[in-house]
Amino acid sequence: MSTFDLYENIQSAAVRIAPWIHRTPVLTSHTLNALCEAELYFKCENLQRTGSFKVRGAHNATFLLEDHLVKKGVVTHSSGNHAAALALAGKNRGIPAFIVMPSNAPKAKIESTKRLGGNVILCEPTASARQMAADQLVQETSGTLIHPFDDLRIVAGQGTCALELLDEIPHLDAIVAPVGGGGLLSGTSIVAHHQSQVTNRPCLTFGAEPAGADDAARSLETGVRQPMNSPQTIADGLRTALGENTFPIIQQHVAAIGTVSDEEILKATRLLWEVMKIVVEPSGAVPFAAVLQNRLPLRGKKVGLILSGGNLDLDRLPWS
After folding, report:
1. Contact 184, 53 (CB under 8 A)
2. Which of 102, 115, 132, 235 is deepest in the core (most CB within 10 A)?
């Protein structure tokens, strides 16, 4: 599928999911602009329904399925944000959602998924255990598997975030998105690439990733999709490796990926809380951390940053 086709899919997704999501605000801060020596525009997906951008892709994929395919429900595996998003999408479609979550997922994300009606099954915190449990659920329920990121329907839904951002702030030099499995970064890069072609004004896409889970940075550098080996990072939403579908898109359209340490992620998270008065989870703060630490060539630029989520356990704040 060409980039043009994927962009058309993102436009269609925006119409399809509009009744079920928030158009989240774009905020800026003179204080943070000065600290980063750049003009920053924060797309606040932490204020999205279920607390993250994941609700976009989950609704697009769920509402694209024909009735006969989803009558038995939908199945996925997720560390949290996609889990809650699919639970809500299933609820809005009127079908059950069966969700495998790792036992070390934040308690707040597990409880949120249950509150939204998701049927949660806990498993060992490994990629193989998650996939095995999800495959077993598909067999038991005859439900439809919706992968948390490596699905072009998911990519199209996530791309609507950048579509909204550029509609509101059209002349950005760059957009920075966090990268775990790559669904959000893929969708973002497709939109930014299209914007660049239409306006004849470059709008680059950059990824941001924890140093302790840097498979995307290694993959982009080597040109070969790298495995994720025992990720160690506080950014629990970014511990997954790039997918077969997301990596080629990122390889084609993403300029670079900046990596940051957990200490730098926590500093950025706290700054967002203290200066902008918004609750952002560590995974969502990674793009700001990369810009703050000058890991990407963005000084003096007009930059959009996607704050991907705001779900964390308030009984276990990362700096307490």
Report:
1. yes
2. 235
- Helix, strand or coil for residue 108? helix
| Helices and strands (H, E) in the chain, number of each type | 13, 10
Looking at the chain, which residues constitute the CATH 3.40.50.1100 domain(s)?
3-53+151-307, 55-145
Instruction: Return the SS3 of 273.
Output: helix
Contact present, 196 and 165 (Cβ < 8 Å): no
pLDDT band at 230, cuts 50/70/90?
confident
Q: pLDDT tens digit string along 42-89?
A: 999 999 999 999 999 999 999 999 988 888 999 999 877 999 999 999
Q: What are phi and psi of 105, to 5 degrees?
A: -65, 145
Please provide the CATH number assigned to the domain covering 55-145.
Answer: 3.40.50.1100
The pLDDT score that the predictor gives to residue 265 is 98
Q: Residues 170, 173, 179, 184: what is their CA dihedral angle, to the nearest 10 degrees? A: 20
Burial status of residue 314 (CB atoms within 10 A of its CB: 0-12, 13-18, 19 or more): exposed
Helix or strand or coil: residue 39?
A: strand
- Torsion-angle region of residue 210: left (phi > 0), alpha (psi -120 to 50) or beta? beta
Residue listed under structure tokens 């957009």: 175
Q: CA 104, CA 79: separation in Å to the nearest integer?
A: 8
CATH architecture of the region 3-53+151-307: 3-Layer(aba) Sandwich (3.40)
Task: Give the pLDDT confidence score for residue 71 in this predicted structure.
Answer: 86
**What amino acid occupies position 285?**
A
CA gap 221, 189 in Å, rounded: 17
